[in-house]
Amino acid sequence: MTDPLVPAILAFRDNGTPYSPSHDDVYHSAVGALAQAEYVFLKGNALPSRWQKRRVFTVLETGFGMGINFLVTWAAWRADPDRCERLHFVSTEKHPFSRDDLLAASTTAVADASIAPLVQRLADAWPTLVPGTHRLEFEEGRVTLTLVFGDAAQTLHSLWLRADAFYLDGFSPAKNPELWTPAIFKALARLAGDDATFATYTSAGDVKRGLQQAGFEYRKVDGFGWKRAMLVGRFAPRYRVRRHEPPLPLVVDERHAIVIGTGLAGCAAIERLTARGWRVTSLERHAGVARDASGNPAGVFHPMMSRDDSVGSRITRAGFLYALRQWSALEGRGYRPLRGPEGLLQIAADEDEASALAQTFASFAYPRDYVTPVSREEAQRLADMRVERGGWFFPHGGWIDPASLCAAQCEAAGGLLERRFNLEASRVERVENQWIVFDANGAAIAAAPVVIFANAHEAARIAGLRHAPTRSVRGQLTLLPSDATHALRVPVIGEGYAVPLPDGTTLTGATYDIDDPDTQIRDDAHTENIERVAQMLPDMRDATDMHVPSSLAGRVAFRCVTSDRLPMIGAFADEAAATHEADKLRGAWPLDLPRAQGLYGAFAFGSRGLVWASLGAELIASQIEGEPWPIERDLAEALDPARFLLRALRQGTAN
Fold first, then answer.
1. Distance CA 609, CA 621 (A)
2. Are 412 and 335 in contact (CB under 8 A)?
3. Domains (ranges, CATH) in the chain?
4. What's the pLDDT tens digit per position in 539-554?
5. Under-50 pLDDT residues of the chain
6. Where is each FAD dependent oxidoreductase domain found (predicted)?
């Protein structure tokens, strides 16, 4: 179970230096925060010279604190004409500041005119204080801050990246020994790239010994301010110390990818790859984007809540928060998908669930801007309609028009996107360093080093996967006319959902009919949708009595789902090679599996495409580019398209 996130307490010493009462230590030297960051961490890691002319450079920091090291590094990157193309800064923090405290603490420490504006930009992007990984993007994505909120003793093991430089900046070993243990140094060694460097303000003997045992060489140099000495060094193990090498970018002759499918999954992948400079060819069997399930008039988005903060809850939390940031970034660039005002109400299934989850939210200390329990009376005020019982409210949840989001993402891709419609992919074949996509007549229709399958039910078949089981779920929506019901103030979900649309109609649904191929609108499905909504909103039943089901408009679409209800996101396995080595791989983990170089999937999103698509696309782009992953490794492995193959290998049934 995830531990509650406890924010830092902001305090100041008499000399104005920010101070941590819980660790009885200062956040930076009284001599100066900026000077300390530049001397200890930039100069100690030979930056900016080491990142110059690089495509990607990654810094891993232990202890984000006030963010001064990040701000100074960001400013140095901005000032360097020979800077790397993309700078990744990954930092762990067990006790993050609130946005207001971060701004207050940083402002007192930063007087430099080149850095002060960056403080406000960081504060404006500061994430909701919930556990997990938060990816923030600046400079149109060229500077990425990945914040990992939680205890570094656990979170460092969950990261997957190749670090080029380490900033070891926890509170002093005497005050915060948990950040200076052999286990921490071993975790860093697992993530160190070739000749990765490190720097730290301390020169304590235990730190020197722990680093050396983990494969780092160190040397003492003059310390900063009143400190006599500090440590700098590099990763230089004398022998192999890790089972898996940290990730590297996919080797390709040309940064060109084919994306099959232009629903939510495909368009998100298009946007994330073109944002990194990739050229993308999209293949779509229909005449336009978002014609299948992504063509519904609206979709709701919100995290999934559970009493034990399950894997599903953690993934949807990460996806929900990342999607909100990405949509806001699109809007900031002038690409505006149609979405409703913020706020979404979930009605509990019964009073026991309402009570239990209210206690859960309190135990996890979720902030009110993430989720808050509401009584029946509060729910009725929020909905402006009678409700059956209380539940919980997501202030940043809501609804969005999926087709408009897809269109915005494709527009953002600009000239890097080649759109090809009315083409149906049938199979792929590897020829030298390229994947060739063929249609049903055997004609080659596109070629590229990378193919991303974002075409739902057809993905596994076209890719030739045998261990990627999915099922089809028919979903029928019902549109209630404006005269049928009093307008809701916010979307309401629970047994069903009711979404107030701008034209005054209310979208309700959707049915969940497994392996039902019927494409026709059915009266019984309309009745089912209304009955489910009426269990949350009793007035709906009376208001819709005047309309016979056959008079109501609706839409049928088909969801693609897996047996574990989690999507397929990531690199495909080379199933033939894995099956050939089945005996050796019986005890394998995901990183042990052979992979089909250049093949990736983003499908089986079920009814949560809005929450999963952007994060899934960012994960795939990060895997391709060898960048830090945007979520914890165990969560990525829960989404891995190869997870069903892995289970078959462990059970001895792969063939």
1. 17
2. yes
3. 11-235 (3.40.50.150), 256-292+404-470+563-651 (3.50.50.60), 349-395 (no CATH), 473-559 (3.30.9.10)
4. 887 766 666 788 899 9
5. none
6. 257-622
